[in-house]
Amino acid sequence: MSGTPLAVRICYFIDAIYAIGLCFAAIDMELTTKADEDMERYAVMHVAAAYQARRHPFAFGYQQPSTSNTNATTPSAIFADLLAPAPPPTGSSGHPRGFETSKYKEWSHWADGTVPLLRSRTLDVIIVSCVAFGVWLYTSYIDKRRRRGLPYPPGPPGLPLVGNLFDMPSEHEWIVYRDWAWKYGSGVIHLNTLGTHLVVVNTAKAANELFDKRSSLYSDRPSLTSLTEYLSFDWAIGFIPYGPKWRAMRRVFHTYFHPAAAKTYEPLETQAVHRLLRNLLDKPRDFRKHTRHMAGQVILRIAYGIDVLPQNDPFVELAEKALQSVTLATSLGGSIFDLVPILKSMPWWVPGAGFKKEAEKWRPIVQDMVDKPFAATQTAVNQGDAPFSVAASIIVREDRDPMLFPAQIPANFYLGGADTTVSAIQSFFLAMVLYPEVQRKAQTELDSVLCGARLPTFEDQSLLPYVSALAKEVQRWHPVVPLGKNLRTLTRIVLSRHIPAIPHRLLEDDVYEGHFIPAGSIVIGNVWAVLHDPVTFPDPEAFRPEHFLSKSQGGTLGDGGAVRLTEAAFGFGRRECPGRYLARASVWIAVANILAAFEIKPLLDEDGRPIPVEERYTSGIVAYPASFQCDIKLRSNKARDLVLAASES
Ligand code: HEM
Hints:
The protein has helices at 6-33, 37-55, 75-83, 104-147, 173-183, 204-213, 225-230, 244-257, 259-263, 266-282, 287-304, 314-329, 332-339, 353-383, 390-396, 408-434, 436-450, 465-477, 495-498, 527-530, 559-566, 580-597, 637-648; strands at 188-193, 196-201, 504-505, 510-512, 515-517, 522-525, 598-601, 631-634. It is mostly helical. Strand 4 and strand 5 form a beta hairpin. Helix 12 (314-329) runs antiparallel to helix 14. Bound molecules: protoporphyrin IX containing FE (HEM). Protoporphyrin IX containing FE is lined by residues 237-238, 250, 412-413, 416-417, 420-421, 424, 480-481, 502, 525, 569-572, 575-579, 582-583, 587. Protoporphyrin IX containing FE (HEM) is lined by residues 237-238, 250, 412-413, 416-417, 420-421, 424, 480-481, 502, 525, 569-572, 575-579, 582-583, 587. It comes from Vararia minispora EC-137.
């Protein structure tokens, strides 16, 4: 068997299923009409065909027999009929295609025996069907008792057994879930995929009630075997279940990222943004690459005290490569293990096995991402010339938590902080191309406060309310982590475990507004829907910083409400993003400085007409604007001087 080509093995499988299906159909007909020999005959032929193919792998081009013109009534006669016009041998391997007449006798005996065999199986089928029906009745009864008569939250009806598997959207799921919430008139909707309950929370009210007020129930994560076991991401706090290890990690995060600690990183963030300005000046077309470099510079400096190289930094490249493996894990091959953990012990040809092999190649890279930058800091500490960094501080601490491996803590920063910050800044560039009047207003405010004499710092926040509202609107307009990732048709199968951005998992049965939510449900906060609620944010699809300005300033919200709602961009409850203070400052500093120095416009074509830019986004865990080009030009000579001076200091 092991030497048989894969394609042939797939053919075996398909044909066996086909033949079995036809046998059951024949039995069914026999039960109902007692006289449909035709159907039975058809089934027998296909069973025989499958049998023949099993013995002769290259004979798969057999011709579909037509039963309509035959008078044959017994399996032997059918075979005689079937075998008479032997197809020509055309297989490139030299093996005969079609049936081998020399085997006729053997097969016909076998086929003759099939009819009574099918008949004798009838009772088995009835028993199996009764048992299956009984199991279904019993589980329905248990389910009903567990729900105490309460319904699940509303949602699309679904099909028996597979539930909503085929309802699941393949991209931009956050919009579909929001639409379902409107259609069924409920902030919380329920879906069932292959028996796994999926609950999507679409309003701020429900998110607040479930994730915040009942946070002890809603803070677990579903197990992601593909990432934690196969790729060794078991150190990533975002994937660690709710429990002592997660708490220990969060405590460390809090030590280094609480608001006062985050404030101490502002000079580093400003320095990275100044380098970004210089890079934009030198190579404006590479703005995407530059934002990635900026985010990497901030994170690696804070995490390890490493000053990254202007180009091709080995630590940035290593981390970026390791993160590519997450995409691999969230492909169908990897996700299948999250859905069906038993596949872990299955032979190599079972679905997902290719992923296992691939994961072996990637694991050392993920390990290097953890070890190599930490080792560099260790060396610097030993030599006594390490600048402040989280890694250096952990190395010299004596009160380290024994549950945590020191090198794993700073590795979390790149994983959580790099892509997210990059996406936000790229959304900002897109918004400025699409909304030139917003850009003009922000620049007018900057000019009136700074008078072109200096670049802005984070301290200027309160002096620049429109720019500050603009930075918040960037996170609302297209939330960085809107909900989910791209799920193509096949990956619908893994939805129940793997759908959302970073899903929560319910620990105990719960009831919300008269609806039952079972323990183990995967609970997704639809950040996008919360931030596109037309009652709170009129005209939610438009980029309008006024969404975050008080009414007296021409906006729609008081600052208090707006502040709480921007938090939604960073997730919910106890799992809320621990890097949010750092992230918010990085985005503000980047946005304000770029606006002060540059004008962002559409590129012009050869005839001087603006090249249209579309507002399109990818559907990943982190959503990016789809590739677009823009023209980034200095606003004035004064701006050039400021950029050059800042990048040299
Ligand atoms: C614009 C920037 C960022 C955005 C929009 C963002 C957003 C998010 C979101 C939505 C979550 C999921 C929360 C939930 O499960 O409800 C999250 C989790 C997380 N983020 Fe961020 N994030 C950003 C930057 C950062 C940075 C800079 C760091 C680290 C330095 C970071 C570290 C983390 C970690 C460790 C988690 C997992 C928390 C846990 O599971 O307990 N993030 N982030």
